[in-house]
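Most newcomers find our protein records easier to grasp once they have seen one. Each record describes a single protein and holds just a pair of labelled lines. A learned vocabulary of local backbone shapes supplies the integers on the structure line. Nothing more is needed to start thinking about how sequence determines fold. The record below serves as our worked example for the rest of this section.
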Amino acid sequence: MYCAVSAAGGSIGLLLGGFFTDFMSWRVGMFINVPIGIALLYLVQRYIQKTGTRTGRFDFWGAIVSVIVMTALVYGFVQAAEHGWGKPETWISLAAGIILLAAFVLIEARSTEPIIPLRLFANRQRSGAYLGRFLVVCGNFSLIFFIPQYLQNVLGFSSLEAIFLSDLHNYYYHPNFASRPL
């Protein structure tokens, strides 16, 4: 089920994005989540039962530091892409992100109700599975970004054509589709 939903969602999202970019504007793609979100809010209210409330403490500092970590890392990579790896802004931002990531781990280790319980990483097999999944997702997202860029900017395809061609990787990436007989 997970593979089917992720493949369908990824494929439909990419194709709609290519369609909007070619025939309307790329900005239209930013608003597609609004009607989907409204429909999901309705469906959740209708079909999901309410659960009892639970008392607990919100990990405020963990949340704040995690947002700053991600912001610093993303900013650093964007600076590297735009201005190169030699700029001080790139390295300062990436170093700040790494240092704050270590601070995040310390905050989570001391928190009574952490955002990410560190006990999840105690099992070696689970940690390996997390790492494997992380690497697969990184590879897949880089394909989703770079292949359409190459098809459009180097080979001259339109946005919709590039997305349609690059979206074929979903049939090889997801085992439910790859294991079907042709």
